[in-house]
Amino acid sequence: MKLTSLLPLLPLLAGAQACLTPAELQGGHIARRTTGTTPPANNTNTIPVGKGDRFRNGASFPRGIGTQPTANFTTIFNLVELRSAVKGLAKEYGIVPFESPFKTVQHNTIYGAKLGNTSSTFFHVLLQAGLHARERGAPDTLLYFIGDLLYADKHHTGLQYGGVSYTLDDVHAALLNGLVILPALNPDGIAYDQATDACWRKNRNPASATSGNPATVGVDLNRNFAPVWDFAHALAPGIQAASTDPASEIFAGTGPLSEPETKSVDWVMDGLPNLGWMVDIHQPAGVVLHGWCHDSNQATDPSQNLLNPAYDGKRGVVPDVPGLAYKEYKQLTEWDVEVLTAGRMADAMTDATGRPYVALQGPHLYPSSGCSADHGNWRNAVNSTRHRVHGLGVEAGAPNLDADCPFYPTVDMHRLNIIDTSVALMEALLSAARHKW
Ligand SMILES: [Zn+2]
What we know:
hydrolase; binds zinc ion; zinc ion binding; protease; zinc; alpha/beta; Aminopeptidase
């Protein structure tokens, strides 16, 4: 079969919408945002953005559904509240906040916190959210979960998320990993999306923009990490794992880690010599993804790897075809652990609220390049003194088909997303506790 005859099948592989709509996968946009001739977008049936600062500059702190099972949250955190929540958690529980040295184009700071294994400098797991601005409430889910873990630890209680519960011993095991959180990785994009309802995915870097075409602003941060960033060179012709068109929703930027947001993640990883796991939180595809992102895995031929130029132009075709047979090498034990963990995460999410979840390798949804989940393993590939990092992506929930921006959840969906993401993170942490390097 020729590659050209294979390409029309790729959108079918995507099945449900993920971080991209089927139209966006083909290079299009959500219509009402870009035409300018249609009525204003209708996002009335979506959870509103909070006003002011419910955490009063860190005077109070978030607590999720795991420690207060009847809680309901009727607004999502605005940009001020995201930062204030971390401040509040630091004040209440002594977690250690930090800031990246890289400022965004709108002078926002990428910040995070370290917590858990406070008796040592061992930090084994990175949890991050907010790369895609429009996936509203995803940063909140991380902060609510962390709020639950810390509350449960301090008050000696377990956690209950819908049909799934965890003991205090589980809480201790999760925290003993040593955790680093990056809750709001795209502050410029989040601020813009919350101010405009523009269903905005990318950051707000105007460096590649064309005057009069607002869609050309911004870089897709989840295509800007280093692994196979140069997809046009590394992958087979026609595999649109990212885009070189600034108007695309999957514009990869001008170089690997060209953006302050992705540089910040790399900088955080530089400071975590014992990092072994990372989970990247997204919405709303109902999947748990494990790497590699750009092609299927194999565990028998180490020469088929992303740094080997002999395979440039051959990667990214799923399923393989004659002449384009390539699968990315992954050590067998590492692959086993990731499949097991992703499966347990998906199972727990379904057990929690009954919504269906599946675990997939990334390219079985669609191949992508420059993805965050593979960045830790790329760092190991170019410098073997660094650990490999199990990279996982959580896509909580389902699209909101009543809204023009299907990435904006309803109040009810947001509650379910908090529960599902919490159990996914808990399963990942319990697996990380069992599988240290
Ligand atoms: Zn996303």
